[in-house]
Specification:
847 residues, mainly alpha, two-stranded antiparallel ribbon, 36 helices, 2 strands, 72% helix, elongated
Length: 847
């Protein structure tokens, strides 16, 4: 007879299970070589009084020892490191690991022997081995498959979560569900392992029992889900407790070996506790009264091979599709460099340029330090002192790119070890450990250097640190003794990689322009261009800087020359042609720009932006009839905008067609439902242009006839009063405009000018109203340089020098360069003079 709760054998002279309370008993009714599905009973008992928190103490110490030994290779490696006082060969890792796994497996068997009545004869050992292998393979398969899916989803989830919140939220939810599914299947394999070993399940029944277990778990998915959540929270609590315990251990400052020993022991107790809880769960919920008589057939090797083959399929698939980390230090460093570049590209795609630049600098710094190492090693093998100088330059440049590069001192120190310059090597390693981002292998270099020194007792602390941090091998040792052939091969590869990464420094240099450091950005980009003349992104950033920092002394020609060079580097496209035309337009080369846009308009006649720019250039080149024809063609195609309306009105005005111009200009008011700076500016500019175009009384009569009392009527009369220096009349009309649409910042600016000029003409010193309207204007138009320039003068006249200085500095911030073609009134030059004068005056007042 067997207990229906735990499956243990019940003595013939008793009705009570020796391992648990007597709940129910099942009779031994099966004697065949396999178990039918109705013989397997798996139930969920909600009323069971067995606690999930309370562990079965019997055999728990064996489980702790098993967990400790499975992670106990440090124990043997620490002993060998202490005895030898030098880095261990890499072969010791697999040797000690196999030994620990073997010992851990023995203690796991002892745990089951202690907690079950299973015997350890050949039959049962075969059962245990087969069930264990299958359960472990299943767990690895589930973790690998779902881990691959989750890791491949990570980039997509992050990108969409930042850019498309709705879809990103859905993917985050899917991501979370996948993690729970992984937990679900891992729990199922742990339970299957426990039930299989405890009840001596035959291998041929393994799949049937596992499917039955999964079936019950799926039927009670909500309960299992809650158990998953509780287990995850419990694991987090355990990790917190582990940190607290380890912090307490660290505060005692024991030897490094003891720190690692206690760390492993605490980890083993916690993990053993969690596994024991899972086993308790199996005792509570899964009841499998199974046949274990000695005459039962154990399994066939054919069945074993079939089941193992099925279980190994996903692992084999992952093995051939997943890129494994290389054990070769050179390959690892190359992968690290490429990984940093990939991170930088991802971050740049998300629009975080500073973060991307940091990743590119780290990648390039690692590449230069690796090249410095290879060149240094080549110099030792060829006795070429010039190569050593080149290596030093590479190390210095790597340091400039990333001051936290931990490879530099590591590589330089190991090269000094090869030269047997042990004191110099020790100094270099000691310099490296001051870097908080140093590579831990640097301490192995210190150990070797100390062993060669007079006072070898210094290595005690070093060995202690190595054991504390479980550093036993120099993972870079292979790269310090390469053949000339390999050095040449690696140098060729690393040079190609540097050529691939270094042009990305253009992002970094362009970023300097945001801090008005245009000169440095120019020089850096020009140096970069001299190294990589055919790289389009360098050329592109040069055009941007030339465009943003135009000067009459050459940058106009530089801009057009650079954009022509860019066009020669990349294949022809509509976007490139538009960009080239825009750069020519910004260089004030309007005839050439018009020619480019004429071609673009012929190819893309339904493109609004191309049409707008083409009309603008036709007006700039005084081809007003052609401009009107193009706008009429676009209107007939129902392609219309505020800007085209304004340009059409201006073209008609330049042809002295005042009536038609006013008819078109009135249409601008239809675009005023939603405020835009462009709408604000066009009303102001057109009103001023119409005033300047008034030549005879007829032009005023047309204004009276066409507009009567509209907002545009008051605006034009307001600007006419300003031109006539009649501030009262001007403001009378402009205040009506403000009353009708208080959103208009340029109207407030014009009102402020009237108040200011009136105060100057009357010498009244009353600048309060002017200041009020200037400040109201820049609240609406924060980038209006002329408003800040006028505000600065108003503050100066009101004897508010500090405020005036701030206003003039704002002008220079908005227009950081002198360019009379873009700044026809020369306010930048005047602002520079005012800043200098006011700074001197204020400094004298202070002292």
């Amino acid at each position: 007879m067997f207990c229906s709760t735990c499956g243990s054998k019940i003595p013939a002279d008793s009705n009570t299970c020796p391992n648990c309370t007597p709940i129910s008993v099942s009779k031994d009714t099966a004697s065949t070589s396999r178990i039918d599905s109705d013989e397997i009973v798996i139930t969920l008992d909600n009323d069971s009084s067995v606690s999930l928190i309370k562990t079965n103490q019997k055999g728990f110490s064996f489980l702790i020892l098993a967990m400790f030994l499975l992670n106990g290779s440090f124990l043997f490696k620490s002993i060998i490191l202490k005895l030898s006082s030098k880095p261990l060969p890499m072969i010791w890792t697999p040797i000690t690991s196999i030994l620990c796994w073997f010992l851990g497996g023995i203690f796991i068997l002892l745990y089951f022997k202690k907690t079950t009545d299973i015997g350890f004869d050949l039959k049962n050992l075969k059962r245990v081995l087969a069930s264990s292998i299958l359960s472990i393979i299943l767990a690895i398969s589930f973790i690998s498959i779902f881990g691959l899916i989750i890791s491949n989803m990570y980039k997509t989830v992050v990108s969409l979560a930042l850019n498309e919140s709705a879809l990103g939220l859905v993917l985050v939810l899917v991501y979370f569900i996948l993690v729970l599914i992984v937990q679900f299947f891992i729990l199922s394999t742990i339970l299957q392992l426990y039930v299989s070993i405890k009840n001596g399940i035959h291998l041929i029944d393994y799949a049937k029992i596992y499917l039955s277990t999964l079936s019950i778990m799926f039927k009670n998915f909500l309960k299992i889900f809650m158990i998953n959540i509780v287990a995850a929270l419990l694991f987090v609590i355990m990790l917190i407790l582990q940190d607290l315990i380890l912090n307490a251990i660290d505060s005692l400052q024991p030897y490094g070996f003891l720190t690692v020993f206690f760390n492993a022991l605490v980890w083993s107790i916690i993990f053993a506790y969690i596994i024991q809880l899972a086993f308790n769960f199996g005792d509570k919920y899964i009841k499998a009264p199974l046949e274990t008589t000695s005459d039962k057939k154990i399994f066939s090797f054919r069945s074993l091979l079939i089941l193992l083959s099925i279980a190994l399929v996903p692992i084999f698939f992952l093995a051939i599709t997943t890129k494994k980390p290389s054990s070769d230090p050179y390959d690892r460093l190359i992968q690290e460099i490429r990984s940093e570049v990939a991170k930088g590209d991802l971050i740049m795609d998300l629009g975080i340029s500073l973060g991307a630049i940091e990743q590119y600098d780290k990648a390039l710094s690692t590449a230069y330090s690796l090249r410095g190492l290879l060149i240094y090693e080549k110099s030792l093998k060829t006795s070429n002192s010039q190569l050593r100088s080149d290596a030093s330059n590479d190390f210095n440049y790597a340091q400039q790119l990333n001051i936290y590069n931990g490879y530099i001192s590591l590589f330089k120190g190991n090269m000094l070890l090869l030269e047997e310059r042990y004191p110099d090597a020790l100094n270099e390693f000691n310099k490296g450990i001051k870097n908080s981002f140093n590579e831990p292998e640097i301490y192995l270099g210190i150990l070797i250097s100390q062993n060669k020194s007079i006072n070898k007792k210094e290595n005690i602390n070093t060995i202690d640190w190595l054991m504390r941090n479980e550093i036993y091998h120099d993972s870079f040792s292979k790269i310090y003794d390469l053949s000339i052939k390999k050095l040449e091969k690696y140098l060729t590869e690393i040079n190609m990689l540097i050529e691939e990464i270094e042009p990305k420094l253009a992002y970094k240099y362009y970023e300097m322009t945001k801090y008005n450091d245009h000169t440095t950005a120019f020089n850096k980009l020009l140096d970069l261009k001299s190294k990589y003349p055919k790289d389009p992104q360098i050329s592109y950033f040069l055009t941007l800087i030339y465009s943003e920092h135009r000067k009459e002394t050459g940058n106009y020609d530089n801009l057009t020359n650079e954009v022509d060079h860019l066009s020669s580097l990349i294949s022809k496209s509509l976007e490139l042609d538009i960009y080239k035309a825009q750069m020519y337009m910004q260089s004030n080369k309007y005839p050439e720009a018009e020619s480019f846009y004429a071609d673009l308009y012929e190819r893309e006649s339904d493109d609004l932006e191309i049409g707008e720019s083409y009309v603008y250039l036709l007006i700039k080149n005084q081809k007003f009839d052609e401009a009107i024809k193009v706008t009429d063609d676009l209107r007939s195609e129902k392609i219309w905008s505020l800007r085209l309306t304004y340009l059409n009105a201006m073209a008609l005005l330049n042809l002295q067609k005042h009536e038609g111009s006013l008819d078109t200009a009135v249409e601008m008011l239809e675009f005023g439902d939603e405020y835009t700076e462009e709408y604000d500016r066009f009303l102001y500019s057109y009103s001023l242009a119409y005033v300047n175009a008034i030549k005879v009384q007829e032009h005023i009569d047309i204004l009276e006839t066409k507009l009567n009392c509209s907002i545009l009527y008051n605006y034009i009369y307001g600007m006419k009063g300003w031109k006539d220096k009649d501030s009262n009349s001007s403001n009378q009309y402009l205040l009506l405009v403000e009353k009708e649409d208080e959103r208009l910042g340029y109207t407030k600016y014009a009102i402020a000018i009237n108040y200011y000029e009136k105060a100057i003409r009357t010498d009244s010193k009353e600048f309060d109203e002017a200041l009020e309207y200037y400040l109201d204007s820049i609240k609406i138009l924060p980038d209006h340089a002329e408003a800040y320039f006028s505000l600065g003068h108003c503050y100066k006249q009101a004897d508010m020098k500090l405020e005036a200085l701030r206003a003039f500095r704002k002008v220079l911030e908005l227009i950081p360069y002198e360019d009379h073609r873009l700044d026809p009134y020369g306010i930048v030059v005047h602002a520079q003079g005012e800043v200098s004068t006011l700074t001197n005056e204020l400094s004298k007042e202070v002292y």
